[in-house]
Amino acid sequence: MDKETLSELHRIFQDVQSKADWKSALDTLVLSMRGSFVFDNVAIYLSDRKSAGLDVVYARAIGRGKTSEADAAWGEMAANDVISNEHMIIRGPGKNSNRENRMSQTHLLGIPLYIGSKLRGALLFVRFGGPEYSDIHIHVASLQAVWAAALLERKELQEARAELDSVQRQMRLQDDFVSTISHELRTPLGFIKGYSTSLLRQDTVWDEETQREFLIIIDEEADRLTKLIEDMLESARLQSKTIQFKFSPIRLDSLVRDVSSRIKTHHPNLVIEMKVESLPPVLGDGVRLSQVIENLLGNAIKYAPGSKITVTGSATEKRVRLSIADEGEGIPEEYIPFLFERFYRVPGERTVTGTGLGLYICKQIVMAHHGNIWVESVLDRGTTFMIELPADPTL
Amino acid sequence: MAKRILIVDDEPRYLRLLEANLRTEGYEVVTAQDGMQALDIFSSNPIDLVLMDVMMPRLDGFGATQRLREFTNVPIVILTARGEEQDRVRGLDLGADDYLIKPFSATELLARVRAVLRRAHSSSDAVQVRFFTHDDLKIDFARAEVWRGEEPVSLSATEYRLLLQFAHNVGKILTSEDLLTSVWGVEYKSDKEILWVSIARLRQKLEKDAHTPKHIVTRSGLGYLMPPTEV
Hints:
A: five-stranded antiparallel beta sheet; 12 strands; B: five-stranded parallel beta sheet; 19% strand
């Protein structure tokens, strides 16, 4: 190989391999070789991995006939011939072809494509009106065929890999779900079992203070377990859509006032600032929406202890929005995207008990109302949860 | 002398539960909240037994067990909420002596601790050397860190595993096959070139003069060895 050819090949190789997708790689390949091998149309036929039929996977009209649609039907018969004979074919124009019309003077060159050791398809070139294919042309075309096969193999591997990835992701999600449930249930059970068997030990005497400490833990963990089971059932029902929502016109402003005053009876020192004027009604299920508001207020109390909570209402013609803001530590940005996922808990959040289901349930309920729920948070400044529901369209 | 037990768990209520029960039996208790902390505590305190949770932030129980086994025979009992067979097998394969599935009763826990300690009665003289030195070369097994004099050396995971083979077998000739099998896996048994390249790179990083190596020496036709240091 002379130096010029070598450096030319090197350049083409680099150009082709650097293309991210297989189609532009093939484009680069066929165009860059056109200097030494002229053709008008090119097409690749490939037998499907699953069915037996031939598919056109790639076709370009480059020279004459460019204006007519890149119809690759001209090659299908030839491709079938290449595959059934397992051999290259060269086919000139028939005797009856119209010598006046170049476009009917087709010169075909078909080369078998092997992926691995398997004959999988054919690469076809066509020239309208000649000249005939010379040896050097056939060489260049054969090189392109080997190369195209490698590019197609890469494409198939990439597709197979993507398919595998998605199957694996599905399996992992299911796996994670089962192991999360079992972990979540075992944790409180483990405490109840551990601390109660500690108290039952006959070979030791616990002082009164320790006994009380252990009993409080058992009591709290039993509550946690109950809550966890309730939440799990609730979220399963929401997900399977077996919960019947009872929609009626609801005013979020009065709903949020009711919930706040109920919560205040349990937290007498809590400050809730209401910036809620009268809001247009939404079509919703009052019980479920109270549940959402209660959950969001409850979170603010749990995760931003001692902070003031500000509830703001606003409305446009079509949407009604409620925001619930605390002035706590805030949530690190990297955790925000996962907050509404099932069983997700911010890492390191150990001091506060929670099931990781509250926000997931909120989201399900809000979605069932065709609304939105999202969060904004600034570290050391606080966290704001927002829900937005469509205004009652019947009014 | 009271046996000292290290408890590793990220749930404060488990730490409290284990600590309270162990103290009634006269054990001394030290606690850590994740694997990294456990390794640090381990190196500064003589420990007779480790109770290790699995799911923990930073370094989990499996990772910490594996790291500990690089330099100590201390008995390790894995505490896991995951009862699946493959998890139990994995823990034992990594070098744990026993496991306990959460939820467990306090009396069973204490019985297991007694049993494991009884089996490992010689644990006080178990090898508990966190640091390895060979001339100016120093390895911190707990943190998987390597130093040349005062200079930290950065090794790839494979290079580190290769170095450990020598550190654990000072004075012993290791054949290419031994090294390839234990570091890369049995399917690499005859890929000598990989070993040559890796040894050369390791020497570049560890030796003062890579041409006259002191740490990893070639014995032509036999293999490689880390020679014993002169006393």
